[in-house]
Amino acid sequence: MEIRSAFIGILALASAASAQNILLVDASGYASDVVTHLQNQGLTVTDFGSGTPDLATLQQYDAVMAFSDGSFADPVALGDVLADYVDAGGRVVQTTFAFYEGGFGLGIDGRWGAEGYSPFTYGPQTQGTNEYLGKVYNADHYTLRAVDSFDGGSSSYRNVVGMTPGAERVADWTDGTPLIGEVTSKNGVSVGLNFYPPSSDIRGDFWNAATDGDTIMYNALTGRNGCYADFTGDGVLDLFDFLGYVNTFNAGDLDADCDADGELTLFDFLCFVNEFNAGC
Q1: Residues 256 and 210 grouped into a single domain
Q2: CATH code of the domain in which 28 resides
Q3: Of 117, 172, 187, 233, which has fewest CB within 10 angstroms of its CB?
Q4: Which has the closest alpha carbon to 223: 40, 93, 135, 97?
Q5: Would you tell me the crossing angle of helices 266-276 and 239-249 to the nearest 10 degrees?
Q6: Burial of 103: CB neighbours in 10 Å, binned 0-12, 13-18, 19+
Q7: Hey, is 92 helix, strand or coil?
Q8: Can you say whether residue 272 is alpha, beta or left, with left for phi > 0 and alpha for psi between -120 and 50 degrees?
Q9: Are residues 209 and 239 in the same domain?
Q10: Given a cut of 80, is residue 186 above it in pLDDT?
Q11: Which residues contact 162 (CB under 8 A, 6 or more apart)?
Q12: Which of 23, 280, 96 is nearest to 271 (CA)?
């Protein structure tokens, strides 16, 4: 494919233009794998660990992702401050085992669970059967953008959850358990990803790193509330957004050639806007 010379000299700006600052709050021994996958997606990632950041700290970041396989330092305080962050317009992605019900400090408690910030109700964990991305309720949802497949691995760790009233059910596991959900009724957004974020790169029974778990996490963390083409988040669709689009969706497989004419031009970006961003 020919890439026009006007883009070649400035393509390196794409990562900086589209990068977002992400905070991980995790009680997990496998967080390094998650950091690596998100960094490979062009995100700037800080691992806070299992402690409780205050609101001022959270507001330094564009989005927060929480997961556990051990105890959070204070699950009630964490739930309260994450709710405050969403009330202030923040974006939180909650993943397995932070939906855990039954103690051990794995679940996010406080206002988060009690006041409907979590897209999912809480339940015990389950694993041991290889599950995949199953029924999709909203194929146009941004969390599924550029997602071709998702394989949970031989353990397919997940929580046995239901849907919180008012939350959107986006997709299920093949066994019918909710996999992706979203709450948009607050000032900010909370997304539920009912899988354990570390991949098979760090342990063989985790989600298959040859599939699109990292893309699902990236999409959940960077979603633009319906205007997905605004990669820089400045409210303007321009060349830097196109570069972000190329950087994100053209990793060696030419997916950025939206109009399939063999060249990457701004017409491809307009094609992307037309297909995925009605009204953007």
Answers
A1: no
A2: 3.40.50.880
A3: 187
A4: 93
A5: 80
A6: exposed
A7: strand
A8: alpha
A9: no
A10: yes
A11: 120, 121, 123, 178
A12: 280
For strands 189-193 and 178-183, give the pairing.
antiparallel
Q: With contact defined as beta carbons under 8 Å apart, do 173 and 193 qualify?
A: no
Q: Give the sign of the dihedral formed by CA 175, CA 214, CA 189, CA 240.
A: negative
Q: What angle do CA 237, 242, 244 make, to 5 degrees?
A: 110
The kind and range of the H/E element at 248 are helix 239-249
Residue 73 lies in a domain: yes
78, 79, 80, 82 alpha-carbon torsion, rounded to 10°: 80
Residues 230-240: tens digit of each pLDDT: 666 666 777 77
For residues 64-70, average pLDDT: 97
Cα separation values, 194 from 229, 256, 267, Å: 26, 29, 36
81-124 per-position pLDDT tens digit: 999 999 999 999 999 999 999 878 899 999 999 999 999 999 99
Total domains in the fold of the chain: 2
- DSSP structural state of residue 245: H
- The whole-model pTM stands at 0.79
